[in-house]
Here is the input.
Amino acid sequence: EELGNIVAFGDDGTDYENQAARLRFEVDGTPGTNDMPGRILFETTPDGAVATTEKMRLTQEGVLSIGGGDTFGAGAGGLNLQNDGGFGIFLQEGSSQNNYFGVKVNAGSDETQIWSGSGGSVTTPLAFYTSASGTEAERARFDATGLTLATGSTITDGGNLTIDANGDITCLLY
Here is the structure.
């Protein structure tokens, strides 16, 4: 339910009837006695278009979604900033939450968490890549079985301890 809006019109050379941008205020949940949950939608008109489209949304839960298309909200694609017992920054593929990545400060466990996952039944690994001279190469991957190093990659502490992709450990003792 729309509660109100602010619309900006501009002169397109013919008239002032075309919207350039709009802020919409809507009910976001179920209102009750002395209870009016709301959200704010930010819309702009793309070049060559005649109507505004939603580009950003701030929900009553405090979730800020940017660039997620027509189905915004906590599960929308694009960039989501949220605070649900901690603070999180999530990049999501779409409203189905398939393929997402995020960093969250979890207030309940006093830890910072890195998330990689899928809203479906597929286990989504977290892969680490490096790039040299424009060539990308996977170096390490976390999946359901743990950490896997790519062939030729190593973990080192700077000289005293090295673990290679075969699991061989070299430790220099003095």
Remarks:
- Residues 32 and 155 are 57 Å apart (CA to CA).
- The chain has no helices and 15 strands.
- Residues 69-75 have pLDDT under 50 and may be disordered.
- The first strand starts at residue 2 and ends at 10.
